[in-house]
Specification:
about 525 residues; alpha/beta; Rossmann fold; six-stranded mixed beta sheet; 21 strands; elongated; Thiazole-containing bacteriocin maturation protein
Protein backbone atom coordinates (compact mmCIF):
# COMPACT_ATOMS: atom_id res chain seq x y z
CA UNK A 1 0.00 0.00 0.00
CA UNK A 2 1.45 3.36 -1.05
CA UNK A 3 1.67 6.46 1.12
CA UNK A 4 -1.33 7.98 -0.67
CA UNK A 5 -3.37 4.79 -0.39
CA UNK A 6 -2.52 4.50 3.29
CA UNK A 7 -3.62 8.08 3.90
CA UNK A 8 -6.86 7.44 2.03
CA UNK A 9 -7.46 4.31 4.09
CA UNK A 10 -6.76 6.38 7.19
CA UNK A 11 -3.92 6.84 9.67
CA UNK A 12 -4.73 7.24 13.35
CA UNK A 13 -2.32 8.92 15.76
CA UNK A 14 -2.91 8.09 19.42
CA UNK A 15 -1.14 9.70 22.34
CA UNK A 16 -1.02 12.57 24.75
CA UNK A 17 0.91 15.62 25.81
CA UNK A 18 3.74 17.37 23.99
CA UNK A 19 4.80 14.16 22.25
CA UNK A 20 1.49 13.91 20.41
CA UNK A 21 1.75 17.55 19.36
CA UNK A 22 5.26 16.85 18.05
CA UNK A 23 3.95 13.87 16.11
CA UNK A 24 1.21 15.89 14.43
CA UNK A 25 3.67 18.64 13.57
CA UNK A 26 6.13 16.11 12.12
CA UNK A 27 3.30 14.54 10.13
CA UNK A 28 2.36 17.71 8.30
CA UNK A 29 5.95 18.86 7.86
CA UNK A 30 6.69 15.56 6.11
CA UNK A 31 4.20 16.46 3.38
CA UNK A 32 1.55 14.00 4.55
CA UNK A 33 -1.97 15.38 4.72
CA UNK A 34 -4.81 13.35 6.21
CA UNK A 35 -4.52 12.36 9.86
CA UNK A 36 -6.95 11.36 12.60
CA UNK A 37 -5.91 12.02 16.19
CA UNK A 38 -7.11 10.44 19.42
CA UNK A 39 -6.01 12.15 22.64
CA UNK A 40 -5.64 9.76 25.54
CA UNK A 41 -3.46 9.14 28.56
CA UNK A 42 -2.82 11.21 31.64
CA UNK A 43 -1.19 14.16 29.83
CA UNK A 44 -3.71 16.31 27.97
CA UNK A 45 -2.89 17.58 24.52
CA UNK A 46 -4.36 21.00 23.86
CA UNK A 47 -7.10 20.57 21.24
CA UNK A 48 -6.67 24.19 20.23
CA UNK A 49 -2.97 23.61 19.50
CA UNK A 50 -3.83 20.51 17.47
CA UNK A 51 -6.35 22.47 15.42
CA UNK A 52 -3.82 25.26 14.93
CA UNK A 53 -1.28 22.77 13.58
CA UNK A 54 -3.83 21.60 11.01
CA UNK A 55 -4.71 25.18 10.11
CA UNK A 56 -1.04 26.10 9.68
CA UNK A 57 -0.59 23.14 7.34
CA UNK A 58 -3.55 24.23 5.22
CA UNK A 59 -2.25 27.79 5.02
CA UNK A 60 1.03 26.36 3.77
CA UNK A 61 -0.72 25.23 0.62
CA UNK A 62 -1.24 21.63 1.68
CA UNK A 63 -4.51 19.73 1.51
CA UNK A 64 -4.27 19.02 5.21
CA UNK A 65 -7.12 17.41 7.06
CA UNK A 66 -6.93 16.85 10.80
CA UNK A 67 -9.73 14.91 12.45
CA UNK A 68 -10.13 14.47 16.19
CA UNK A 69 -11.23 10.90 16.87
CA UNK A 70 -13.08 10.24 20.08
CA UNK A 71 -12.90 7.27 22.40
CA UNK A 72 -15.10 6.47 25.34
CA UNK A 73 -13.63 7.54 28.67
CA UNK A 74 -15.93 5.51 30.86
CA UNK A 75 -14.46 2.18 31.91
CA UNK A 76 -12.10 0.46 29.54
CA UNK A 77 -11.69 1.88 26.06
CA UNK A 78 -12.93 -0.17 23.15
CA UNK A 79 -9.66 -0.04 21.27
CA UNK A 80 -10.80 -2.44 18.56
CA UNK A 81 -13.73 -0.24 17.64
CA UNK A 82 -11.46 2.81 17.67
CA UNK A 83 -8.80 1.40 15.32
CA UNK A 84 -11.13 -0.53 13.00
CA UNK A 85 -11.71 2.28 10.44
CA UNK A 86 -7.98 2.92 9.97
CA UNK A 87 -5.22 1.05 8.18
CA UNK A 88 -2.27 2.27 10.26
CA UNK A 89 -1.87 3.39 13.87
CA UNK A 90 0.89 5.60 15.28
CA UNK A 91 1.20 5.68 19.06
CA UNK A 92 3.27 8.01 21.23
CA UNK A 93 3.52 8.37 24.98
CA UNK A 94 6.01 10.03 27.31
CA UNK A 95 4.27 8.76 30.45
CA UNK A 96 5.33 5.12 30.13
CA UNK A 97 1.83 3.63 30.21
CA UNK A 98 2.82 0.09 29.30
CA UNK A 99 -0.63 -1.37 29.93
CA UNK A 100 -2.30 1.10 27.57
CA UNK A 101 0.23 0.24 24.88
CA UNK A 102 -0.35 -3.49 25.37
CA UNK A 103 -4.12 -3.12 25.10
CA UNK A 104 -3.85 -0.99 21.99
CA UNK A 105 -1.43 -3.37 20.30
CA UNK A 106 -3.63 -6.34 21.15
CA UNK A 107 -6.53 -4.55 19.47
CA UNK A 108 -4.44 -3.72 16.39
CA UNK A 109 -3.27 -7.33 16.10
CA UNK A 110 -6.85 -8.58 16.43
CA UNK A 111 -8.05 -6.16 13.74
CA UNK A 112 -5.10 -6.80 11.41
CA UNK A 113 -3.79 -3.23 11.60
CA UNK A 114 -0.21 -2.05 11.33
CA UNK A 115 1.06 -0.10 14.34
CA UNK A 116 4.24 1.79 15.12
CA UNK A 117 4.85 3.02 18.70
CA UNK A 118 7.31 5.45 20.28
CA UNK A 119 7.39 5.71 24.07
CA UNK A 120 9.46 6.94 26.99
CA UNK A 121 10.04 4.31 29.65
CA UNK A 122 12.18 4.47 32.78
CA UNK A 123 14.41 7.21 31.43
CA UNK A 124 14.94 5.99 27.86
CA UNK A 125 13.17 6.60 24.57
CA UNK A 126 12.06 3.64 22.50
CA UNK A 127 10.59 3.49 18.99
CA UNK A 128 9.28 0.42 17.17
CA UNK A 129 9.12 -2.34 16.32
CA UNK A 130 6.54 -2.33 13.55
CA UNK A 131 3.49 -4.45 14.32
CA UNK A 132 2.45 -6.02 11.03
CA UNK A 133 -1.11 -7.01 10.03
CA UNK A 134 -0.30 -10.69 10.60
CA UNK A 135 0.44 -9.96 14.28
CA UNK A 136 4.23 -10.27 14.04
CA UNK A 137 6.50 -7.60 15.49
CA UNK A 138 4.95 -7.38 18.95
CA UNK A 139 6.16 -4.51 21.12
CA UNK A 140 6.04 -6.89 24.08
CA UNK A 141 8.90 -8.87 22.54
CA UNK A 142 11.03 -5.74 22.29
CA UNK A 143 10.19 -4.77 25.87
CA UNK A 144 11.17 -8.21 27.18
CA UNK A 145 14.30 -8.32 25.01
CA UNK A 146 15.61 -5.01 26.37
CA UNK A 147 18.29 -5.68 28.95
CA UNK A 148 17.73 -4.18 32.37
CA UNK A 149 21.24 -2.71 32.21
CA UNK A 150 20.06 -0.37 29.43
CA UNK A 151 18.02 1.66 31.88
CA UNK A 152 19.64 4.28 34.12
CA UNK A 153 20.76 2.79 37.43
CA UNK A 154 19.58 5.95 39.14
CA UNK A 155 15.80 5.66 39.41
CA UNK A 156 15.39 9.38 40.04
CA UNK A 157 12.81 10.74 37.57
CA UNK A 158 14.52 12.43 34.65
CA UNK A 159 13.18 15.34 32.63
CA UNK A 160 11.80 14.54 29.18
CA UNK A 161 13.27 17.19 26.93
CA UNK A 162 10.72 18.27 24.34
CA UNK A 163 13.41 18.29 21.68
CA UNK A 164 14.15 14.61 22.41
CA UNK A 165 10.45 13.76 22.26
CA UNK A 166 10.19 15.63 18.99
CA UNK A 167 13.11 13.65 17.59
CA UNK A 168 11.35 10.38 18.40
CA UNK A 169 8.16 11.68 16.80
CA UNK A 170 9.93 12.72 13.60
CA UNK A 171 11.62 9.32 13.48
CA UNK A 172 8.23 7.63 13.79
CA UNK A 173 6.83 9.55 10.83
CA UNK A 174 9.95 8.83 8.79
CA UNK A 175 9.66 5.11 9.47
CA UNK A 176 5.96 5.22 8.54
CA UNK A 177 6.93 6.73 5.21
CA UNK A 178 9.52 3.99 4.61
CA UNK A 179 7.01 1.26 5.44
CA UNK A 180 4.18 2.61 3.32
CA UNK A 181 6.48 3.47 0.41
CA UNK A 182 7.49 -0.19 0.25
CA UNK A 183 11.13 0.32 1.20
CA UNK A 184 12.98 -2.98 1.24
CA UNK A 185 14.67 -2.40 4.58
CA UNK A 186 12.69 -0.17 6.94
CA UNK A 187 14.65 0.14 10.17
CA UNK A 188 11.64 -0.65 12.33
CA UNK A 189 10.94 -4.18 11.05
CA UNK A 190 11.90 -6.59 13.85
CA UNK A 191 13.99 -3.86 15.45
CA UNK A 192 13.59 -1.10 18.02
CA UNK A 193 15.32 2.24 18.42
CA UNK A 194 16.72 2.94 21.89
CA UNK A 195 17.55 6.55 22.71
CA UNK A 196 19.34 8.20 25.60
CA UNK A 197 17.09 11.19 26.13
CA UNK A 198 19.62 13.43 27.82
CA UNK A 199 22.33 12.71 25.23
CA UNK A 200 20.05 12.73 22.15
CA UNK A 201 21.82 9.61 20.90
CA UNK A 202 20.52 6.19 20.00
CA UNK A 203 20.54 3.37 17.50
CA UNK A 204 18.45 0.53 16.10
CA UNK A 205 18.72 -2.93 17.64
CA UNK A 206 17.35 -6.23 16.28
CA UNK A 207 14.49 -7.86 18.17
CA UNK A 208 13.72 -11.58 18.12
CA UNK A 209 10.24 -12.80 19.07
CA UNK A 210 10.17 -13.41 22.81
CA UNK A 211 8.67 -16.69 24.02
CA UNK A 212 6.57 -14.97 26.71
CA UNK A 213 5.13 -12.61 24.09
CA UNK A 214 4.76 -14.72 20.96
CA UNK A 215 4.46 -18.12 22.62
CA UNK A 216 6.54 -21.28 22.38
CA UNK A 217 6.01 -24.18 20.06
CA UNK A 218 5.04 -27.33 21.88
CA UNK A 219 7.86 -29.58 22.99
CA UNK A 220 7.83 -32.70 20.86
CA UNK A 221 9.22 -36.12 21.81
CA UNK A 222 11.88 -37.07 19.30
CA UNK A 223 13.20 -40.40 18.08
CA UNK A 224 16.96 -40.23 18.00
CA UNK A 225 17.32 -42.35 14.84
CA UNK A 226 14.94 -40.05 12.95
CA UNK A 227 16.89 -37.06 14.22
CA UNK A 228 20.15 -38.58 13.03
CA UNK A 229 18.69 -39.40 9.62
CA UNK A 230 17.54 -35.80 9.21
CA UNK A 231 20.95 -34.42 10.18
CA UNK A 232 22.52 -32.02 7.76
CA UNK A 233 26.23 -31.42 7.44
CA UNK A 234 27.50 -29.42 10.43
CA UNK A 235 27.66 -25.68 9.94
CA UNK A 236 30.93 -24.17 8.86
CA UNK A 237 32.66 -21.94 11.44
CA UNK A 238 31.66 -18.82 9.52
CA UNK A 239 27.98 -19.80 9.78
CA UNK A 240 27.79 -20.54 13.49
CA UNK A 241 30.08 -17.62 14.34
CA UNK A 242 27.83 -15.21 12.42
CA UNK A 243 24.72 -16.71 14.02
CA UNK A 244 26.12 -16.29 17.54
CA UNK A 245 27.14 -12.74 16.69
CA UNK A 246 23.54 -11.99 15.67
CA UNK A 247 22.36 -13.27 19.03
CA UNK A 248 24.77 -10.99 20.90
CA UNK A 249 23.87 -7.43 21.84
CA UNK A 250 24.26 -5.53 25.13
CA UNK A 251 20.84 -4.00 24.46
CA UNK A 252 18.49 -6.66 23.03
CA UNK A 253 20.53 -9.84 22.53
CA UNK A 254 19.98 -13.36 23.77
CA UNK A 255 23.58 -12.92 24.91
CA UNK A 256 24.53 -9.73 26.71
CA UNK A 257 28.17 -10.53 26.01
CA UNK A 258 30.12 -13.17 24.08
CA UNK A 259 33.78 -12.30 24.12
CA UNK A 260 37.26 -13.15 25.33
CA UNK A 261 37.18 -10.04 27.56
CA UNK A 262 40.28 -9.86 29.74
CA UNK A 263 40.49 -13.62 30.34
CA UNK A 264 43.94 -15.21 30.39
CA UNK A 265 44.43 -17.13 27.15
CA UNK A 266 47.17 -19.58 28.22
CA UNK A 267 47.47 -22.50 28.62
CA UNK A 268 43.89 -22.65 27.30
CA UNK A 269 41.96 -20.19 25.19
CA UNK A 270 38.93 -18.88 27.09
CA UNK A 271 35.71 -17.13 26.15
CA UNK A 272 32.95 -15.62 28.27
CA UNK A 273 29.24 -15.67 27.51
CA UNK A 274 26.45 -14.04 29.51
CA UNK A 275 22.92 -15.02 28.52
CA UNK A 276 19.88 -13.03 29.57
CA UNK A 277 17.04 -14.40 31.67
CA UNK A 278 14.06 -15.09 29.38
CA UNK A 279 11.69 -15.42 32.34
CA UNK A 280 12.35 -11.98 33.81
CA UNK A 281 9.30 -9.80 34.28
CA UNK A 282 9.60 -6.77 32.03
CA UNK A 283 13.10 -5.94 30.86
CA UNK A 284 15.49 -8.88 30.74
CA UNK A 285 17.81 -9.53 33.66
CA UNK A 286 21.19 -11.16 33.19
CA UNK A 287 22.11 -14.73 34.05
CA UNK A 288 25.53 -15.39 35.61
CA UNK A 289 28.39 -15.26 33.10
CA UNK A 290 29.88 -18.56 31.92
CA UNK A 291 33.47 -19.18 30.87
CA UNK A 292 34.42 -22.03 28.56
CA UNK A 293 37.86 -23.05 27.37
CA UNK A 294 39.38 -24.78 24.38
CA UNK A 295 42.62 -25.51 22.62
CA UNK A 296 41.98 -22.68 20.16
CA UNK A 297 40.12 -19.38 20.30
CA UNK A 298 37.63 -20.76 17.79
CA UNK A 299 36.92 -23.78 19.96
CA UNK A 300 36.53 -21.66 23.10
CA UNK A 301 34.17 -19.32 21.25
CA UNK A 302 32.06 -22.22 20.03
CA UNK A 303 31.95 -23.97 23.39
CA UNK A 304 30.93 -20.82 25.23
CA UNK A 305 28.28 -20.04 22.62
CA UNK A 306 26.70 -23.48 22.91
CA UNK A 307 26.88 -23.28 26.72
CA UNK A 308 25.09 -19.93 26.56
CA UNK A 309 22.32 -21.37 24.39
CA UNK A 310 21.94 -24.27 26.82
CA UNK A 311 21.74 -21.96 29.85
CA UNK A 312 19.14 -19.82 28.10
CA UNK A 313 17.03 -22.86 27.15
CA UNK A 314 17.32 -24.31 30.67
CA UNK A 315 15.62 -21.26 32.14
CA UNK A 316 12.62 -22.02 29.92
CA UNK A 317 12.17 -25.61 31.09
CA UNK A 318 9.06 -24.67 33.15
CA UNK A 319 7.50 -23.40 29.90
CA UNK A 320 8.58 -26.44 27.89
CA UNK A 321 7.35 -28.90 30.54
CA UNK A 322 4.52 -27.15 32.43
CA UNK A 323 3.13 -30.46 33.68
CA UNK A 324 6.35 -31.52 35.41
CA UNK A 325 7.04 -30.45 39.01
CA UNK A 326 10.05 -28.21 39.51
CA UNK A 327 11.83 -30.98 41.43
CA UNK A 328 11.94 -33.12 38.28
CA UNK A 329 13.18 -30.42 35.94
CA UNK A 330 16.65 -30.61 37.48
CA UNK A 331 16.98 -34.16 36.11
CA UNK A 332 16.72 -32.96 32.51
CA UNK A 333 19.81 -32.30 30.43
CA UNK A 334 19.99 -29.61 27.77
CA UNK A 335 22.14 -29.91 24.68
CA UNK A 336 22.77 -27.50 21.83
CA UNK A 337 24.76 -28.18 18.71
CA UNK A 338 25.07 -27.66 14.99
CA UNK A 339 23.69 -31.15 14.31
CA UNK A 340 21.04 -33.23 16.05
CA UNK A 341 23.64 -35.83 17.04
CA UNK A 342 25.87 -33.23 18.67
CA UNK A 343 22.96 -31.63 20.54
CA UNK A 344 21.59 -34.99 21.72
CA UNK A 345 25.03 -36.11 22.87
CA UNK A 346 25.69 -32.88 24.78
CA UNK A 347 22.24 -33.15 26.34
CA UNK A 348 22.87 -36.73 27.45
CA UNK A 349 26.23 -35.80 28.99
CA UNK A 350 24.54 -32.88 30.78
CA UNK A 351 21.86 -35.23 32.09
CA UNK A 352 24.45 -37.77 33.26
CA UNK A 353 26.54 -35.02 34.87
CA UNK A 354 23.54 -33.74 36.84
CA UNK A 355 22.71 -37.22 38.06
CA UNK A 356 26.36 -37.86 38.94
CA UNK A 357 26.62 -34.57 40.86
CA UNK A 358 23.56 -35.51 42.92
CA UNK A 359 25.08 -38.91 43.61
CA UNK A 360 28.32 -37.27 44.73
CA UNK A 361 26.44 -34.88 47.01
CA UNK A 362 24.64 -37.72 48.77
CA UNK A 363 27.73 -39.75 49.68
CA UNK A 364 31.43 -40.03 48.95
CA UNK A 365 32.07 -42.64 46.29
CA UNK A 366 34.87 -45.11 45.92
CA UNK A 367 37.49 -44.87 43.21
CA UNK A 368 40.26 -47.18 42.05
CA UNK A 369 43.76 -46.00 41.13
CA UNK A 370 44.88 -46.58 37.57
CA UNK A 371 48.23 -46.33 35.86
CA UNK A 372 48.09 -44.55 32.53
CA UNK A 373 50.33 -46.45 30.12
CA UNK A 374 49.51 -44.54 26.95
CA UNK A 375 47.52 -41.49 25.86
CA UNK A 376 46.84 -41.43 22.13
CA UNK A 377 44.41 -38.52 22.25
CA UNK A 378 46.28 -35.33 21.31
CA UNK A 379 44.11 -33.11 23.51
CA UNK A 380 44.60 -35.29 26.56
CA UNK A 381 48.35 -35.31 25.97
CA UNK A 382 48.44 -31.52 25.75
CA UNK A 383 46.37 -31.10 28.92
CA UNK A 384 48.53 -33.66 30.73
CA UNK A 385 51.78 -31.98 29.73
CA UNK A 386 50.45 -28.53 30.64
CA UNK A 387 49.42 -29.81 34.07
CA UNK A 388 52.87 -31.30 34.57
CA UNK A 389 54.39 -27.88 33.90
CA UNK A 390 52.00 -25.99 36.16
CA UNK A 391 51.45 -28.37 39.07
CA UNK A 392 53.43 -31.57 38.79
CA UNK A 393 52.27 -34.98 37.61
CA UNK A 394 48.49 -35.33 37.82
CA UNK A 395 46.95 -38.45 39.30
CA UNK A 396 44.12 -40.38 37.66
CA UNK A 397 41.62 -42.63 39.42
CA UNK A 398 38.58 -44.43 38.07
CA UNK A 399 35.28 -43.74 39.78
CA UNK A 400 32.17 -45.89 40.03
CA UNK A 401 30.49 -45.96 36.60
CA UNK A 402 27.07 -44.36 36.19
CA UNK A 403 24.76 -46.66 34.22
CA UNK A 404 27.93 -48.16 32.82
CA UNK A 405 29.33 -44.82 31.62
CA UNK A 406 32.94 -44.12 32.66
CA UNK A 407 33.78 -41.75 35.51
CA UNK A 408 37.35 -40.49 35.77
CA UNK A 409 38.94 -38.29 38.42
CA UNK A 410 42.07 -36.17 38.07
CA UNK A 411 43.99 -34.93 41.08
CA UNK A 412 46.09 -31.83 40.45
CA UNK A 413 47.63 -29.92 43.31
CA UNK A 414 45.23 -30.22 46.23
CA UNK A 415 42.05 -30.40 44.15
CA UNK A 416 40.05 -33.17 42.53
CA UNK A 417 38.19 -32.87 39.24
CA UNK A 418 35.74 -35.53 38.09
CA UNK A 419 33.65 -36.15 35.00
CA UNK A 420 31.25 -38.68 33.53
CA UNK A 421 31.24 -39.08 29.76
CA UNK A 422 30.13 -41.36 26.95
CA UNK A 423 33.68 -42.64 26.40
CA UNK A 424 36.63 -43.11 28.77
CA UNK A 425 38.95 -40.91 26.72
CA UNK A 426 36.34 -38.14 26.69
CA UNK A 427 35.92 -38.45 30.48
CA UNK A 428 39.68 -38.11 30.92
CA UNK A 429 39.79 -35.19 28.52
CA UNK A 430 37.02 -33.36 30.37
CA UNK A 431 38.58 -33.91 33.81
CA UNK A 432 42.04 -32.85 32.63
CA UNK A 433 40.55 -29.74 31.04
CA UNK A 434 38.75 -28.86 34.27
CA UNK A 435 41.99 -29.29 36.18
CA UNK A 436 43.91 -27.13 33.75
CA UNK A 437 41.26 -24.40 33.79
CA UNK A 438 40.79 -24.77 37.57
CA UNK A 439 37.01 -25.00 37.19
CA UNK A 440 34.39 -27.24 38.81
CA UNK A 441 36.69 -28.66 41.47
CA UNK A 442 34.94 -31.18 43.69
CA UNK A 443 34.19 -30.21 47.27
CA UNK A 444 35.90 -33.44 48.29
CA UNK A 445 37.70 -36.15 46.41
CA UNK A 446 36.69 -39.81 46.13
CA UNK A 447 37.57 -42.54 48.62
CA UNK A 448 40.45 -44.36 46.93
CA UNK A 449 40.54 -48.08 47.61
CA UNK A 450 43.54 -50.37 47.35
CA UNK A 451 41.54 -53.31 46.03
CA UNK A 452 41.53 -54.21 43.24
CA UNK A 453 45.20 -53.48 42.54
CA UNK A 454 46.15 -50.55 40.34
CA UNK A 455 45.24 -51.26 36.74
CA UNK A 456 47.22 -50.29 33.65
CA UNK A 457 45.01 -48.38 31.21
CA UNK A 458 45.69 -46.97 27.75
CA UNK A 459 43.49 -44.16 26.46
CA UNK A 460 42.95 -44.40 22.73
CA UNK A 461 42.18 -41.64 20.30
CA UNK A 462 38.60 -40.61 19.59
CA UNK A 463 39.05 -38.40 16.54
CA UNK A 464 37.41 -40.99 14.29
CA UNK A 465 34.32 -41.29 16.52
CA UNK A 466 31.36 -39.31 15.24
CA UNK A 467 28.65 -37.79 17.43
CA UNK A 468 26.17 -40.24 15.90
CA UNK A 469 28.35 -43.27 16.66
CA UNK A 470 28.84 -42.17 20.27
CA UNK A 471 25.12 -41.63 20.69
CA UNK A 472 24.18 -45.02 19.27
CA UNK A 473 26.69 -46.68 21.58
CA UNK A 474 25.27 -44.73 24.53
CA UNK A 475 21.72 -45.84 23.73
CA UNK A 476 22.85 -49.48 23.72
CA UNK A 477 24.59 -48.94 27.06
CA UNK A 478 21.44 -47.48 28.58
CA UNK A 479 19.36 -50.40 27.31
CA UNK A 480 21.88 -52.81 28.82
CA UNK A 481 21.24 -51.26 32.26
CA UNK A 482 17.44 -51.19 31.85
CA UNK A 483 17.28 -47.49 30.98
CA UNK A 484 16.11 -45.63 27.93
CA UNK A 485 16.88 -42.30 26.32
CA UNK A 486 14.09 -39.68 26.29
CA UNK A 487 14.55 -36.89 23.76
CA UNK A 488 12.56 -33.69 23.24
CA UNK A 489 13.01 -31.31 20.35
CA UNK A 490 12.93 -27.81 21.85
CA UNK A 491 12.24 -26.17 18.48
CA UNK A 492 14.77 -23.45 19.10
CA UNK A 493 13.62 -21.43 16.06
CA UNK A 494 10.59 -20.37 18.12
CA UNK A 495 12.79 -18.43 20.55
CA UNK A 496 16.15 -18.04 18.77
CA UNK A 497 15.01 -17.41 15.22
CA UNK A 498 16.65 -19.12 12.28
CA UNK A 499 20.20 -20.38 12.55
CA UNK A 500 22.39 -23.46 12.35
CA UNK A 501 21.63 -24.61 15.90
CA UNK A 502 19.59 -27.53 17.24
CA UNK A 503 18.50 -27.80 20.87
CA UNK A 504 17.27 -30.89 22.70
CA UNK A 505 16.13 -31.74 26.20
CA UNK A 506 17.32 -35.17 27.34
CA UNK A 507 16.16 -37.37 30.19
CA UNK A 508 16.91 -40.95 31.24
CA UNK A 509 13.87 -43.09 31.93
CA UNK A 510 13.16 -46.65 32.97
CA UNK A 511 12.85 -49.17 30.16
CA UNK A 512 9.18 -49.92 29.58
CA UNK A 513 7.86 -46.89 31.51
CA UNK A 514 5.52 -44.47 29.66
Amino acid sequence: MSVQETEEAGVLAIGSGPMLLSLVKAWFESGASRLAVCVTGSQPADAAVLSQLGEDARRGGKEALLQIATASDGGERDWRTLVRPYSFVLYVSSSGDVEELRQLQHACAAEGKSMLPAVVLQGIGMAGPLLRPDGSGLWESAWRRLHSSVFPADETPRPCYESALALLSYMLVHEWQLVTAGAKEPNCVDACYVMELDAFTGSWHPVLPHPLASGLEAVRPAAFELGLEADLDPAEPEAWFAALQRLTSPVTGVFHAWEEADLIQLPLAQCLVQPVDPLAEGAAGLLPPLVRSGLTHEEARRESGLAGLEAYARRMLPLFFPERPASRLGHIGIGAGCTAAEAMGRGLVDCLSRMWNRRQASARRRASPIRCTQIEDARCRYYWQALQLTGGDPRIVSGEPLFGFPVLWVNSGSSWYGSVELHATLALRRSLQKALARTDAAASGPDIVSEPPEQAVAFGGVESLTHAALLRSAVRQLEHTGKRLELFDLRNESYLGTGPFVTYAVAIGEEGSP
